[in-house]
């Protein structure tokens, strides 16, 4: 680890996590995605703030990790690509987000901003986490093995070079942002 970041270990790592979590919440709030109505309007295709914030975070994070990994400042910790589990998790996440009006991060940030409606879903997340923990053995035996591709990344699954995927992500973001801007212009 470079000496500039060597102090972020042990107890300092916990404080760094708290600091970055706080900053993340502030940025979510400043981005407008801690507002229930903004998230609901995203699903009604009336406000694309959530899409813009999330896509920006994905692109910045993805390209940032690509650069950091290229400079040997970080390592990949690849999780197994358990396709069925990912699809089921995405569906449950989407349903929960539509019902709750927040995703987990925006919900916690909304609580921090004093929005008490977010507390109900927060307790739901806790209950869901407990239910997942108690059912994990069944899930591991019956869901995780289905369409398990192993610890693979897209470059390994497709044989296309890594830079291609990051460049594609940037191009996709530009196209999506252009389409959203065009849609917002014609619908207003």
Layout of SSEs?
Layout: H1 10-30, H2 36-43, H3 49-70, H4 83-100, H5 104-112, H6 117-142, H7 154-158, H8 162-187
Helix pairs in contact: 1-5, 3-8, 5-6
Q: Quickly count the domains.
A: 3
- What fraction of the residues are assigned to beta strands by DSSP? under 5%
User: What are the low-pLDDT stretches, counting only 5+ consecutive residues below 50?
Assistant: none
Number of helices: 8
The rough form would be described as globular
Mean pLDDT: 89
SSE series: HHHHHHHH
Major beta-sheet overview: none
Separation of the first and last Cα atoms: 50 Å
Question: What is the strand tally?
Answer: 0
What does the model show?
There is one protein chain. This protein has 188 residues and is an all-alpha fold. It has 3 domains: 30 residues; 63 residues, no CATH class; 75 residues, no CATH class. 72% of the residues lie in helices and 0% in strands. It is globular, with a radius of gyration of 19 Å. The model has no long low-confidence stretch (mean pLDDT 89).
Key features of this structure:
72% helix, 8 helices, globular, 3 domains, single chain, 188 residues, mainly alpha
What is this structure, in a nutshell?
By secondary structure, the chain is an all-alpha fold. The protein has helices at residues 10-30, 36-43, 49-70, 83-100, 104-112, 117-142, 154-158, 162-187.
């Amino acid at each position: 680890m470079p000496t500039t970041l060597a102090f972020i270990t042990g107890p300092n790592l916990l404080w760094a996590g708290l600091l970055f979590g706080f900053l993340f919440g502030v940025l979510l709030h400043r981005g407008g995605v801690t507002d229930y109505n903004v998230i609901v309007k995203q699903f009604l295709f009336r406000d694309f703030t959530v899409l813009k914030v999330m896509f920006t975070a994905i692109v910045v994070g993805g390209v940032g990790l690509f650069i950091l990994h290229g400079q040997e400042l970080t390592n990949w910790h690849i999780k197994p690509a358990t396709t069925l589990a990912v699809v089921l998790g995405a569906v449950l996440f989407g349903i929960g987000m539509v019902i709750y009006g927040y995703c987990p991060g925006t919900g916690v940030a909304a609580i921090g901003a004093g929005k008490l409606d977010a507390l109900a879903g927060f307790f739901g997340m806790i209950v869901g986490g407990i239910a997942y923990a108690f059912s994990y053995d069944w899930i591991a035996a019956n869901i995780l093995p289905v369409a398990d591709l192993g610890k693979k990344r897209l470059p390994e699954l497709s044989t296309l070079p890594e830079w291609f995927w990051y460049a594609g992500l940037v191009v996709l973001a530009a196209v999506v942002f252009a389409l959203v801007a065009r849609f917002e212009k014609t619908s207003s």
